[in-house]
């Protein structure tokens, strides 16, 4: 039913991680700063995120922005790289090589 409404109204859908990233709670992980969470939401509302460049995440066919105004690109790249390690054993060498270079 949700998919029908999205298609019917040509709605954009955004999956946003505004919680925990970079590892386990109490170990290497940390909460995404409120400043960056707000920056992501502001970029959606202003239309800036829709104009951004994206890299396709092959396992789930998600498009991940490579740059968001007000959010350090190295932070985005590092978060992408850390998250991708969970799926690396399912990816081809070409897909792995196409990831962020940091």
UniProtKB/TrEMBL annotation:
<keyword id="KW-0418">Kinase</keyword>
<keyword id="KW-0808">Transferase</keyword>
<dbReference type="GO" id="GO:0005829">
    <property type="term" value="C:cytosol"/>
</dbReference>
<dbReference type="GO" id="GO:0006094">
    <property type="term" value="P:gluconeogenesis"/>
</dbReference>
<dbReference type="GO" id="GO:0016301">
    <property type="term" value="F:kinase activity"/>
</dbReference>
<dbReference type="Pfam" id="PF01293">
    <property type="entry name" value="PEPCK_ATP"/>
</dbReference>
<dbReference type="InterPro" id="IPR013035">
    <property type="entry name" value="PEP_carboxykinase_C"/>
</dbReference>
<dbReference type="GO" id="GO:0004612">
    <property type="term" value="F:phosphoenolpyruvate carboxykinase (ATP) activity"/>
</dbReference>
<dbReference type="InterPro" id="IPR001272">
    <property type="entry name" value="PEP_carboxykinase_ATP"/>
</dbReference>
<dbReference type="GO" id="GO:0005524">
    <property type="term" value="F:ATP binding"/>
</dbReference>
<protein>
    <submittedName>
        <fullName>Protein kinase C-like 1</fullName>
    </submittedName>
</protein>
């Amino acid at each position: 039913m949700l998919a029908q409404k999205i298609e019917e109204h040509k709605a954009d859908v955004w999956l946003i991680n505004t919680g925990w990233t970079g590892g386990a709670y109490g170990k290497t992980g940390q909460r995404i700063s409120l400043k960056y969470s707000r920056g992501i939401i502001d970029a959606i509302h202003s239309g800036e995120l829709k104009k951004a460049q994206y890299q396709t995440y092959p396992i789930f066919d998600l498009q991940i922005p490579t740059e968001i105004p007000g959010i350090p690109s190295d932070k985005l790249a590092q978060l992408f790289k850390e998250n991708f390690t969970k799926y690396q054993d399912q990816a081809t060498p070409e897909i792995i090589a196409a990831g962020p270079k940091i």
